[in-house]
Amino acid sequence: MARPPQKFAPGMPSRDQILEFIQSADSLAGKREIAKAFGLKGQEKIALKKLLKDMAEEGLIDGKKTAYHRMGGVPKVTVLRVMAIEDGEALAIPDSWQPDDATPPPRLRVMESRKKGGPRQAALRVGDRILARTEQAGNGWLAHVMKKLPARTEGLMGVVEVDTAGKAWLAPVDKRVRQSTLISDLGGAEAGQLVMAEPAGKSPRSGVKIIEVLGDPLAPRSFSLIAISKHGIPNVFSEETLAEAELAAKLPLLPEKREDLRHLPIVAIDPADARDHDDAIWAEPDGSGGFRAVVAIADVSYYVRPGGALDREARKRGNSVYFPDRVVPMLPEVLSADVCSLRQGEDRAAMACHMVISSSGKLTSWRFTRAIVRIDEVIAYEEAQARIDGGDEAPNLRSLWECWAALHKARTERDPLELELPERRVMLDDQGKIAEIAIRERLDAHRVVEEFMIAANVAAAKALESKTAPVVYRIHEPPSREKLVALREYLASFGRKLALGQVITPSLFNRMLKDVTDETEKAQVMEAVLRSQTQAYYGPANAGHFGLSLGSYAHFTSPIRRYADLLVHRALVDAFQLEQPKPKPPLQPLSGLSDRDRGDLSKIADAISQTERRAMEAERDTIDRYVAAWLSGRVGETFETRITGVQSFGFFATIVGLGGDGLVPVSTLGSDYFRYDEAARALVGERSGTRFDTGQKLELKLAEANALTGALKFELPGTEGKRIEPRGNRDDGKAPKPGKFRSGPRGRPANIRHQGRKKR
Fold it and tell me: Which end of the chain has fewer beta carbons closer than 10 Å to its terminal beta carbon, N or C?
């Protein structure tokens, strides 16, 4: 069992003592171990539980009650995935790393060992998973292998390649995996085909066997198929689910049981290529400077009842996933694209949020009803903007813009976090091939709809709070102290200050960005601020929404594509007694929250937070593949890029106006010795003083573009194919200095192997 340092006397430990204990413990350090080590009993254990919870909320520790570790660190015992082999040594990252921002996962140097007289352990390969005990060594991490774990069987997708000796190999489609796997059974597959495989035996030497041929890996729709498989996204509805959806779609609207809003000229403003329409808005002046407004949302809870096959499938999916060539919907299309989609000129069931908004944009009152609506118009963002810009006086649009002007006043007063995060848009032609990749233009029409949706989400949260009803909040916590300290150190590296004694608010970051006039420096600061942010998630305990500067916030406006919104609708049904007459079996009778969810919302909130991250990663991976495919015909061209991240092994850059991150390995930067300045997040040439900083713009030559993995590789113009002399042959005859990073074949710290020998 882990023991506390002898200097600690029994009794309630301080925060610093807990941190030191966790850091120095030689095994798992959970609540039980801490209590036993410090001799805590009775009420002290209860106090310890609260203290550990407070430390987690303050960003000091992370993990579960059975195994804590310092925030930003690595658990004492954890599963790692080997991501590179450098100079014969394996480097690994946490297998379950969930990036809550742009911060890369920690890289651990793997220390392989074997018992005296025992069998020699098979050499680790890229992609291997290991259970390891970890420790921090200086500014880095070490991992001591406890055992090698069996390979995962899911997601073995790749492309068949045949070498000159006639052997078949499975080439990976995941850019994190760099090695191919021997194919022992082709199963009729041919070279160049995209396939699914599974291990042919228990031993890695057995290779894999092909179980399904998927076709041309570069054909239209293949990129999203790869992401669906890689991330394990459910994309086929069972017959039971489809049958229940067909029954649900036939439920009568029962206008006599709903508020009739068909007389209101409600409009749905959506992307031109929208596949569904789950929200529509209306507003008119109230005669006293303010506005009456309605946000009508598809009444999905009427059709999808808790406990049925539809609900089980929606819970499993958590959300719809949107790719350039397809949507993997949360609900079958008979609901998502038809009955629950607010179509122009057709009667639809809706959950209506009625709001009164003051002239200063404050939400003064609200109420929720089940309604029947008839959408007056479905308008694309671009068309709505063009009509307003052209002086269109149609009241149903003009009133929306006037109400938005009031809402914008309240937004300005809140001063939410304003970060410029451009969205890439992939446009395909009729054959599914890439027609154009561009940054999506941000219009006032987008902002209008966004502010109406935010107001309705706030109203939903506050309405449920007023009834002390369960709420699935959308939570965005403030940056942790550890991240703020890192941000302060980074800003100090180029002469800017961040005082941590003040209250940290979005306004602070906004002012910081406004004070920066230099474009490159502004990009650097914005990237740093983005890295300091936590990831938003769903949960039943309110912690506010830092980014939006809101105290209470719940997702209400997209129940077609987000299960969290469906849960909020069900809670509103219960809280405001909006239940409709029971349908005939086999459909479930009630449309409110189930007893299971009402009793423990945290479990489903955690699950849908995970599915949301899964969807984001899959969508990002697919866009990366499309970008790489788009660029594959332009290898050798020079592009204007911006550095998005710097590490000891090189830096990442993205093409301005297009996106697509690519690596520039430190080994390609010429004959200088580069030192990695961790605080400044920069590579600095020891002799030349050349710097590569996050946010810096520079011209780079595209060296590689792999459409299958989405990976790009850049080079500095004029250094094509050049590598410096082997490590140790400095032209001044001196050995590399400790702590300096050389632009050698692996871009490793020159002293890292020496440090390893001392450890051993």
Answer: C
Asked whether residue 754 falls in the same domain as residue 648, the answer is yes
- Does 347 map to a domain? yes
Domain assignment of residue 224, yes or no? no
Query: Domain boundary residue among 70, 90, 110?
Result: 70
Distance between CA atoms of residues 217 and 190, nearest Å: 12
Domain CATH code at residue 33: 1.10.10
Residue 760 has pLDDT above 80, yes or no: no
Q: What is the DSSP letter of 632?
A: G
Q: Which two tokens stand for residue 178?
A: 């760099």
Q: Are residues 35 and 132 in the same domain?
A: no
- Residue 562 is classified by DSSP as B
Count of structural domains, the chain: 6
For residues 409 and 671, the model is more confident at: 409
Give buried/exposed letters for 60-78 (b at 16+ CB in 10 A, else e): bbbbeeebbbbbbbbbbeb
Local structure of 86: helix, strand or coil: strand
462 and 341, same domain (yes or no): yes
Q: What is the pLDDT of residues 708-749, one digit of tens each?
A: 888 999 999 977 555 443 333 333 433 333 333 333 333 333
Alpha carbon 660 to chain centroid distance? 16
Kindly state whether residues 696 and 654 are assigned to the same domain.
yes
Do 742 and 685 contact (CB within 8 A), yes or no? Answer: no
Is 8 a member of any domain? no
Question: Which pLDDT score is estimated for 478?
Answer: 95
Query: Is pLDDT at 396 greater than 60 in this prediction?
Result: yes
Collapsing DSSP to helix, strand or coil, 437 comes out as strand
Residue 575: pLDDT band with limits 50, 70, 90:
very high
d(CA 474, CA 539): 7
Between the CA of residue 744 and those of 653, 671, 673, what are the distances in Å?
Answer: 20, 9, 8
Domain of 645, CATH number, reads 2.40.50.140
Residues 301 and 401 in one domain: yes
Statement to judge: residues 244 and 288 lie in one domain: yes
Question: Three-state DSSP class for 646?
Answer: strand
pLDDT digits (tens, 9 = 90+) for 169-213: 998 887 767 788 899 999 999 999 999 888 888 777 888 999 888
Question: What DSSP letter does each residue of 353-401 carry, written as one string?
Answer: EEEEE-TTS-EEEEEEEEEEEEBSEEEEHHHHHHHHHTT---HHHHHHH
The boundaries of the domain holding residue 179 are 157-217
In a domain, 556, yes or no: no
Q: Is residue 38 domain-shared with residue 122, that is, in the same domain? A: no
∠ CA 409-415-419, nearest 5°, is: 120
- Residues whose CB is less than 8 angstroms from the CB of residue 88 and which lie 6 or more positions away in sequence, other chains included: none
- pLDDT, one tens digit per residue, over 85-123 is 766 778 888 876 544 333 457 788 898 765 554 444 567
Average of per-residue pLDDT values in the chain: 84
For strands 129-137 and 77-86, give the pairing: antiparallel
Rounded distance between C-alpha atoms, residue 742 and residue 719, angstroms: 16
